[in-house]
User: Fold this.
Amino acid sequence: KSGVLGKSFDDEVIINIKKILPSGRKNLSFRFLTGKNKIRFPSANGVNLNFVFQAFLENDVQQMNHQTGGNALYFRNRIRHALAGNSQVVPTTFEFDGKTYEGQNIVVKPFSKKSVAIVRGGDRLFSRFSKYADKTYILTMSDQIPGKFFQISAITPSEDGSEPLTSEVMTFLGVKTKKK
Assistant:
């Protein structure tokens, strides 16, 4: 995390796959950040999705809530609605571990004037949270990466184009297996 709002830091997220069920679903536990940045999430059993994405977005929503005094539910819903109907999907390639991978970037701006206008009362809310109007989420995904997410970014540019207000980037670093 970097930017003008809040302290910059580097940290890690660790997912432990405790068990792979016959259905392919997994029992998981994970650690999302450490120290004062740590967010506790309960273990999840029988899941078929990547909790890292959900945890990243929940952390981001809580930060916006704290910075604005806004409603976390409003932020969550804006992101969900934008992902469901207002995202742009762009083919991409990226380098990881010395190899080139193909994937796609899903780009969404859930707080843009266009996105907010379709919400009842959106104009009133837009003026309250206008600093997020150009906030952009970029999800870099590939079927060739375990869990499919290679990178998740949330960037809130400053109005004058200088250093971003916030920039959070979470990048897949690999898989470690425990020796038996």
